[in-house]
Each structure stands twice: as C-alpha cells, then as structure tokens.
Design a protein that fits this description.
156 residues, alpha+beta, two-stranded antiparallel sheet, 7 helices, 2 strands, 53% helix
C-alpha cells in the first residue's frame, strides 16, 4: 500500500505578468517584501519564490527599491545641506485675506550631515575602535594577552 504525498495547504498562488509592474510601483513607494505579500494576498515566502522564478518580477522589485533608496538619499542630502522651497503666507489685513508668496529656508541638520559623511567617507568620519597612544591596541589589552600567552613559571 502506498501512502499519498502530503497535500498542499490552501490554494496555490498564481503569478500573473502584471504583478511585476504593480510590485515596481509599490517598491518605489517604499514597500517591503512583507508589504508586497500583503498586497498580493500571499506569504513573504511566495514573494521570495516569485523573485527567484520570474526574472521580470525580480528586476521590477529591485528597480523599485533602488528608486526609493535614491529618493531617501536625496532627502537626506537636502536635510544635511539645507534647502529652500516656495510657499505662501496668509494674512488678514484690513478685513481682507491676503496671500503672499514667500521662500522658506530649512537650515542644515548637523545630525543628517554627520550620518551622510559617516556613510560616504567612513574612513574619515566613521566610528573607530578605541586605540592606544601609538595607534595600536589599548595597553591594558596587550598586558592581558601577555599574561595569558606567556604565564609566569612557578617554582615547585
């Protein structure tokens, strides 16, 4: 007597070609693989399988996420160096509503600048491990290593 194979649970998710364009747009808006899975009513594992078995879907997800990353980079850069934008002020003057076009200025954010520099010029701006006065390891660590490697000999 043969035993039947374990039945699959639920309805198998069917991939459609239009999913690639939808995934690209969602990823451009910042969607994660988990959010893609929720949108397509599948599991995250299915999204992973679709990326491996459908090259067009995989490319669409990568391009969409790349565009979202570039948008965040531009925003971080603008925040780091400051920027200006056109706006308008609304006044109440002698019983009339007056709209005046203005230019607003956002000052540079030192935290954003430091974050940018740590990532772009990490050798200069990145967090470094503490070092001793000569640039080598901290002296106490060297002393501990000597004691462990060359323990003193005891007289018996």
């Amino acid at each position: 007597m043969t035993t039947p194979a374990t039945p699959l649970r639920g309805r198998p998710p069917h991939y459609r070609d239009e999913f690639a364009a939808q995934a690209k747009k969602l990823c451009m808006l910042g969607a994660t693989d988990f959010e893609l899975a929720e949108f397509f009513c599948v599991t995250s594992r299915t999204i992973y399988l679709w990326k491996n078995s459908h090259p067009k879907f995989c490319r669409a997800v990568k391009v969409g996420k790349l565009r979202a990353d570039e948008r965040v980079e531009r925003a971080l850069f603008n925040r780091a160096v400051g920027y200006s934008y056109e706006s308008e002020k609304v006044f109440h003057f002698q019983g009339e509503i007056v709209r005046a076009p203005i230019v607003e200025h956002v000052v540079p954010d030192p935290g954003a600048a430091l974050n940018w520099l740590k990532n772009r010029k990490w050798k200069v701006w990145g967090d470094k491990a503490p070092s001793g006065p000569d640039g080598g390891p901290i002296p106490i660590i060297t002393r501990i290593e000597r004691v462990i490697v060359d323990p003193p000999k005891r007289d018996e």
